[in-house]
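wait is this the right file?? whatever heres the structure
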């Protein structure tokens, strides 16, 4: 496969991590360009990554094979409608914006439905900033096998990329991994506070919590048994872990997690309804 030319529309946090990831993978610097209205942001990206970056979105997309829409959802409609006359048939559109459905992008990016571009809609998460992200990807019917590979290469540069069969599954991905880092941060906050209340210095409680989270995630990823079995192995009969787990479950832990993720998925679908107008 020829190395695609990639244009980023919006060069904020997510775009910067994708650009950094692509360059680290060996994508040549002249294959990547970007546009952003912020002069400071342009100077920062240009200094950090050495790519061509301009203020004009139309200039950025000229000659690109892949166009990554990395602006905030609230400005997406305006950005797409202004970009529409500057696109060509063969270009792949990759959107990383939360809550913008493919059919809205198709509508905003083309005057006639039959001329709608190929679109891959992604839901990344913020650990992408450390190249430890995970993304769900959905491709419309117009996306070719080569374009799927290009989208996968892009998102794999900042973590794990997983394909979805149905666009609706993006709501579940948002609930699990898009918002997910915040759930783990909440658990880290709560365990740190509890450790402190039990007599540890705050910094010690924080380090114990964070290193435990990292170690547990790595064990779950790398072990050949599932999380339930790993949990059983820590839980001695009548021991300390059993006391804690019994207490969690008496408080309805699993039902609460189910309820919380359902609330996130429902909100994701509502946002798609609003933002896609
Ligand atoms: N699942 C998640 O946790 C995440 C999802 N996302 C999605 O990624 C997208 C980008 O988010 P961030 O990078 O965090 O935002 P950001 O605010 O850091 O970056 C957006 C950039 O777009 C630029 N911009 C504004 N108007 C523009 C225009 N008309 N043309 C070109 N550029 C324009 C801004 O100057 C800014 O640099 C969002 O749509 C967000 O929904 C991002 C981060 C995490
Ligand atoms: O909270 C939100 O709406 C966005 C989408 C996923 C993560 N942050």
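ok assuming it is, sequence goes like this
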């Amino acid at each position: 496969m020829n190395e695609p030319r990639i244009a980023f529309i919006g060069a904020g946090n997510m775009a910067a991590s994708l650009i950094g990831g692509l360059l680290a993978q060996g994508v040549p610097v002249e294959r990547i360009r970007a546009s952003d209205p912020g002069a400071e942001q342009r100077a920062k990206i240009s200094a950090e990554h050495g790519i061509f970056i301009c203020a004009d979105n139309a200039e950025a997309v000229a000659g690109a094979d892949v166009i990554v829409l990395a602006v905030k959802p609230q400005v997406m409609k305006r950005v797409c409608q202004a970009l529409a006359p500057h696109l060509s048939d063969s270009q792949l559109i990759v959107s990383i914006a939360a809550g913008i459905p493919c059919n809205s992008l198709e509508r905003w990016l083309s005057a006639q439905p039959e001329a709608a571009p190929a679109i891959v809609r992604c839901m990344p998460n913020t650990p992408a900033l450390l190249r430890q992200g995970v993304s769900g990807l959905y491709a419309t019917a117009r996306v070719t096998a080569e374009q799927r590979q290009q989208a996968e290469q892009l998102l794999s540069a900042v973590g794990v990329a997983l394909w979805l069969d149905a666009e609706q599954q993006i709501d579940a991905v948002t609930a699990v991994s898009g918002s997910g880092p915040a759930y783990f941060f909440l658990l880290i906050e709560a365990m740190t506070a509890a450790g402190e209340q039990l007599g540890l210095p705050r910094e010690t409680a924080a380090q114990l919590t964070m290193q435990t989270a990292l170690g547990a995630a790595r064990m779950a990823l790398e072990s050949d048994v599932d999380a339930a079995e790993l949990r059983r192995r820590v839980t001695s009969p009548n021991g300390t872990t059993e006391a804690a787990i019994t207490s969690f479950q008496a408080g309805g832990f699993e039902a609460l997690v189910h309820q919380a993720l359902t609330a996130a998925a429902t909100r994701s679908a509502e946002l798609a309804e609003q933002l896609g107008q």
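The chain has two domains: 6-171, 180-272. so i think its the right one actually
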